[in-house]
Write a structure and sequence with these properties.
Length: 489
């Protein structure tokens, strides 16, 4: 059964109201979670006109990118309103302006952080959507772009191109596809003729924003009677109160998003992937298990003292929707599965990875990633409205979040042609979110994870120690791929 529209009054002929999941992200972004950022370090001076042209083509191909989120203060609701023509404003920062921004980010804890990393964190904490919903803000508006672009000039003839997107319009699949399409468009050596471009735009402008995920779920997949829904919601609520959290460093100060990197060389990565494949699990199981073990060890718990931890696994639902969507259908089409795991200490990585992944897979088989979607969205909004429902008003929903499927990326001609030397992509998490969110990619054989956390609720030193411990646990497990517990083909 589809989730009914939040507001049946259409404000514009090219608009549609947001769905339940999109509405949750609209609320979350206002609090600082769900600001998606793609940052590319390039060695060629970007041609702003060519970049704008490429972004316009992306907006033509994907109507949600040329939409604005309209907020109705009277009804407290959001809608997507799609423009018939593409539009984008690119903010350009010269060396002096970039230097001023970076000066405010430098500090003892960032002395070993790259400039790309610093700019990524800066963009993750630029919340234009928050300012526009504050009537006292000079930028107050009831309509907001879902796609913003910036270019920063760095010393040494380097530049950082940044795209910042609203999570209601961009999940990780969208971000990955957008990056690949953008590089292809910018890297084209031959421009289309004006008549060809106008003809293409005329055809594409007829497109509409795809429906919300709730309106595409096959009939019967979300069916649940009132009693079952009440029991599930009570279960989620009660379990959340018993979750163990990482130690909070500062739960009172205003928060921002920071990131640390987890990087594992190709040989160790291959051994870890081999261990996963042999046991019939995905990498998310190993990442989640490593996080649980590292977090439990960091609390210096005595042996056999069990602690409960929450693990959220995000899964892309495009292929199971009706009609099925492809990776080229931009928007937010992920759902979350929340599992609870009791850790007593002394667990082996592969045993726990198998257990955590199996728990997630069993939930999917029972369609709980679909049937519980409305429940989790409701509880998410309740927690945002009442932070005191969470430990120390921290808005932490779980210890860790992982993605079911890992992004695979190999260097290609488009990247070389454009001059891409490095890139980073993730979403902010200093509002309602887990303590650490893992955005994993296998890049040219390297396991490259961006680990997002809220600061100063957690410190960079604390999270670096946690991530370093996770790396050691994963590498050790890969080097000790015993055959006693491996599933035989």
């Amino acid at each position: 059964m589809s989730t009914p529209a939040l507001n049946s009054t259409m404000l514009h002929p090219n608009s549609r109201v947001v769905g339940g999941t999109e509405n949750s992200w609209c609320r979350a972004v206002l609090g600082g979670t769900g600001i998606a950022v793609l940052a590319l370090l390039i060695s060629k001076n970007p041609d702003l006109s060519r970049l704008r042209s490429a972004l316009h083509e992306l907006q033509n191909s994907h109507p949600i990118l040329r939409s604005r989120l309209h907020y109705n203060p009277a009804s407290n609701t959001f809608s997507f309103v799609t423009s018939p023509s593409p539009f984008i404003q690119i903010n350009s920062f010269n060396h002096s302006a970039t230097s001023n921004i970076l000066e405010n980010l430098y500090g003892q804890e960032t002395q070993n952080v790259t400039l790309l990393h610093l700019i990524l964190e800066h963009e993750l904490n630029q919340n234009s959507w928050l300012a526009s919903h504050n009537p006292n803000s000079p930028s107050f508006s009831t309509k907001n772009d879902v796609l913003l672009a910036s270019v920063y000039a760095l010393p040494g003839a380097k530049w950082v191109v940044v795209l910042r997107l609203h999570a209601a319009a961009c999940d990780r699949t969208t971000a990955v596809s957008l990056l690949r399409e953008l590089l292809t468009l910018i890297g084209r050596e031959e421009e289309e003729t004006t008549p060809q471009r106008e003809e293409k735009e005329t055809m594409m402008n007829k497109g509409e924003v795809s429906l919300a995920i709730e309106d595409l779920i096959p009939k019967g997949k979300t069916k649940k009677n009132v009693l079952a829904r009440g029991i599930d919601m009570l279960g989620y609520s009660v379990n959340s109160f018993s979750f163990t959290n990482l130690k909070f460093k500062d739960a009172k100060s205003s928060r921002s998003t920071q990131v640390v990197k987890l990087l594992i060389n190709p040989d160790d990565t291959e051994r870890i992937l081999t261990g996963c494949k042999a046991r019939g699990i995905k990498l998310c199981g190993a990442l989640g298990a490593a996080g649980l073990i590292a977090a439990h060890n960091s609390k210096c718990c005595s042996d056999h003292q069990k602690k409960k931890y929450g693990v959220v696994t995000l899964t892309d639902c495009r292929s199971i929707l009706q009609p099925p969507l492809s990776n080229l259908n931009f928007g937010f089409y992920h759902s979350a599965v929340l599992n609870t795991h009791a850790i007593k200490g002394g667990e082996k990585l592969w045993d726990l990875a198998k257990k955590t992944y199996t728990s997630f897979a069993n939930y999917k088989k029972c369609n709980k990633h679909l049937s519980d979607m409305a429940d989790l969205n409701f509880l998410m909004c309740r927690a945002m409205a009442n932070p005191g429902l969470t430990s120390s008003s921290s808005l932490r929903t779980s210890l860790i979040s992982v993605f079911e499927d890992t992004v695979i990326d190999e260097s290609n001609d488009q990247q070389k042609l454009v001059g891409v030397e490095d890139y980073m992509g993730c979403a902010s998490g200093h509002g309602i979110a887990p303590s650490i969110a893992i955005f994993d990619t296998i890049r040219d054989g390297w396991l490259d994870c961006i680990c997002v956390y809220p600061s100063p609720l957690h410190s960079r030193e604390q999270m670096k120690e946690l991530v370093d411990a996770m790396k050691c646990i994963l590498v050790d497990a890969g080097n000790n791929n015993g055959t006693d517990e491996i599933i035989k083909p």
